[in-house]
């Protein structure tokens, strides 16, 4: 996404289309669901331009220098990048909570060293809700490009020395593209986040641009016109037909990449399609596309509550100013010391913020107490033992409660993290009522027994079968099923419903002798982590409420009726977490006057206090085995 003052007007226009599409997608333009593929168009353009530049100096002039190449990349990329990173850190001081501010600083460190894509691969998914809160998320693509620039000149030198004529070089580049595409197609099915963020599954997108750089000019005007039109159609199709619910990149990235490559190959302003791309104001927008890309996302994340029209004006003004005063000045043609110094300042600032935990001391006392709130769920959830991480394939023996005597009634908790967060409450209630609690939970591992309904968790089906075997052995009287039901429902094959997905599980539990099965509905969700919601409420209204509807995720509340219907269809009992945790005044935020009694520690997972409150308020509706026996006696 870097600027090149010597490129063709149609390529500048293609850049304008790419950056405008990305911005439109991030602003929620429903008519452009594939706007994010603008990044893939940028990759093709970058591969073409960089390879053309190397060919120009290596082949035609014989003056290629690795040192000069890297210095030139630093001069063009780093000044604007350093400015945006530093400005985002400054804005974050005033607008972000300490935990989020520390996260911003960590991402800034990786972004400043060309590893933003690695950071976000390890910490979030591009289409995840958490990604919406990351002001530097978009820099991942720049990380891919920087890593490509680091290795590509070496590849090119090797190609030039190994093959002395253009034909073999072109064939080699085609092979890199085809093999890279095949690898990306395999990788995206195995690990979509890995394929999305990292260089090697993306390299084919840059390589296809490099392949075009090796092709001879197309001499037939008819063929050139037809190809340009085909390229334009493919790009448009990618922008309007591809969407974020499909596996991406891989095959779904081919439309944008092939379209961009064909448009570039069809050459100059000699066709209808390329003349359209060269029409003003597209080349002017393309000229500042790098700055537009850098600025648009942090502005949207940090001050997105403003009118979108105003945000776009701010973005354009800052981008134009950055292009005029940062990208173009004389020092961009001098040594690399200025950009190196600029990025060093950002690195030092990010380190200071990280070391000081986001500087919670900058907040007033009550806000600071909320900002410093921390809940460690490791022991409460029995993480790595009875709440398994994705790479784990075996529950610990203690999850089965083998030490409990045969006369001790048992209940079982089965599901994902929205089951695990109930365990502290069930454990406390069970201890006071003479029951033991079996726990079989895993990260994004719903209690399904159909292989086709489990996504991105290769061990989930086997651990669910382990759970069922333990249930058959221990014969618990009561089972609780809980999960992020509607997240999974959005991924189901056509025709699958929540009731049909859980039917094999319910039938297996009944056959195992479970007397009573409870399906737990969705828990209250917040637009931000609950401590942040309360800080925002305190800033806006001057109070920390015990209950509130402020920043409550309304879409989650609307899911209760569908879950109730699914439970009825399955012939099991339904427990509404919404009814337990919420009333007309709103949903519970804390169980006592102290901040330490918050009911949730993030956007929806309960603390031990919240779990205890939930279990206490559903207890009258549950046929507890030990309690019912005592009552009968």
Describe it:
The structure is a single chain. The chain contains 29 helices and 9 strands. Strands 1-3-2-4-5-7 form a 6-stranded parallel beta sheet, with helices on both faces. It has a 3-stranded antiparallel beta sheet with strand order 6-9-8. The longest helix has 30 residues, at 66-95. β8 (582-583) and β9 form a beta hairpin. With 633 residues, it is mainly alpha-helical. Mean pLDDT is 91; it is low at 1-5 and 629-633. α2 (38-61) packs across α9. It starts with 8 loop residues before the first helix and ends with a helix. It has helices at 9-26, 38-61, 66-95, 98-112, 116-123, 140-162, 166-190, 192-197, 199-214, 221-241, 254-266, 272-277, 282-287, 289-303, 308-327, 337-355, 365-371, 378-381, 417-420, 423-433, 460-474, 485-489, 498-511, 530-541, 554-557, 560-570, 577-581, 608-618, 625-632, and strands spanning 387-388, 410-415, 436-442, 478-482, 516-520, 547-548, 573-575, 582-583, 586-588.
Principal-axis shape? globular
Poorly predicted parts: 1-5, 629-633
Number of helices: 29
Using DSSP, what is the number of strands? 9
Q: Average pLDDT value?
A: 91
Helix-strand makeup class: mainly alpha
How would a crystallographer describe the biggest sheet? 6 strands, parallel
* End-to-end CA span: 75 Å
Helix content: 55-70%
- Radius of gyration, taken over Cα atoms and rounded to an integer in Å: 28 Å
The percent range for strand residues is 5-15%
Spatial order of strands in the largest sheet: 1-3-2-4-5-7
């Amino acid at each position: 996404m870097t600027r090149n003052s010597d490129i063709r007007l149609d390529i500048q226009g293609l850049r304008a289309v790419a950056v405008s599409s990305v911005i439109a997608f991030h602003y929620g333009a429903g008519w452009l669901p594939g706007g994010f593929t603008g990044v893939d168009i940028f990759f093709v353009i970058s591969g073409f331009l960089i390879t053309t530049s190397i060919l120009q100096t290596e082949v035609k002039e014989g003056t290629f220098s690795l040192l000069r190449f890297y210095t030139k990349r630093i001069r063009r990329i780093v000044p604007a990048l350093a400015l945006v990173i530093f400005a985002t850190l400054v804005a974050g001081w005033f607008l972000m909570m300490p935990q989020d501010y520390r996260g911003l600083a960590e991402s800034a460190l990786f972004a400043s060293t060309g590893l933003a894509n690695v950071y976000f691969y390890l910490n979030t998914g591009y289409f995840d809700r958490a990604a919406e809160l990351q002001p530097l998320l978009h820099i991942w693509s720049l990380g891919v490009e920087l890593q490509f620039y680091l290795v590509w000149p070496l590849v090119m030198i090797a190609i030039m020395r190994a093959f002395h004529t253009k034909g073999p070089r072109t064939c080699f580049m085609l092979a890199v593209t085809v093999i890279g595409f095949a690898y990306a197609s395999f990788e995206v099915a195995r690990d979509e986040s890995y394929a999305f963020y990292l260089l090697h599954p993306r390299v084919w997108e840059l390589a296809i641009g490099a392949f075009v750089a090796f092709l001879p000019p197309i001499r037939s005007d008819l063929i050139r016109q037809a190809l340009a039109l085909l390229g334009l159609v493919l790009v448009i199709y990618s922008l309007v037909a591809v969407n974020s619910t499909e596996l991406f990149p891989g095959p779904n990235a081919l439309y944008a990449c092939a379209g961009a490559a064909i448009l570039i190959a069809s050459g100059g302003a000699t066709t209808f399609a390329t003349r359209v791309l060269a029409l003003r104001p597209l080349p002017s927008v393309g000229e500042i596309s790098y700055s537009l890309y850098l600025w648009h996302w942090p502005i949207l994340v940090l001050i997105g509550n403003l009118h979108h029209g105003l945000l776009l004006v701010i973005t354009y003004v800052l981008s134009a100013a950055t292009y005029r005063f940062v990208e173009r000045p004389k020092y961009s043609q001098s040594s690399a010391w200025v950009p190196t110094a600029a990025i060093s300042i950002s690195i030092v600032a990010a380190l200071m913020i990280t070391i000081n935990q986001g500087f919670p001391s900058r907040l007033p006392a009550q806000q600071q107490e909320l900002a410093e709130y921390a809940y460690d769920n490791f022991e409460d959830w029995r993480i790595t033992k009875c709440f398994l991480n994705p790479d784990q394939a075996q529950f610990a023996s203690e999850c089965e409660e083998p030490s409990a005597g045969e006369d001790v009634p048992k209940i079982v908790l089965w599901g994902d993290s929205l089951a695990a967060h109930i365990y502290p409450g069930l454990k406390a209630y069970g201890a006071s009522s003479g029951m033991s609690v079996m726990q079989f939970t895993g990260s994004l591992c719903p209690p399904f027994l159909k292989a086709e309904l489990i996504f991105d968790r290769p061990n989930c089906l086997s651990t669910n079968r382990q759970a069922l075997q333990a249930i058959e052995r221990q014969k618990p009287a009561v089972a609780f099923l809980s999960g992020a039901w509607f997240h999974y429902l959005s991924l189901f094959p056509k025709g699958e419903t929540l009731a049909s997905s859980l039917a094999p599980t319910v039938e297996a539990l009944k056959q195992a002798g479970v007397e009573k099965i409870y399906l737990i509905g969705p828990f209250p969700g917040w637009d931000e982590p609950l401590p942040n919601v309360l800080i925002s409420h305190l800033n806006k209204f001057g109070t920390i409420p015990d209950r509130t509807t402020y920043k409550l995720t309304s879409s989650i509340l609307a899911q209760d009726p569908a879950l109730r219907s699914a439970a009825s269809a399955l012939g099991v009992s339904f427990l509404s977490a919404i009814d337990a945790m919420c009333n007309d005044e709103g949903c519970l935020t804390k169980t006592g006057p102290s901040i330490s009694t918050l009911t949730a520690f993030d956007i929806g997972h309960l603390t031990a206090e919240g779990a205890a409150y939930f279990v206490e308020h559903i207890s009258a509706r549950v046929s507890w085995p030990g309690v019912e026996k005592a009552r009968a006696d």
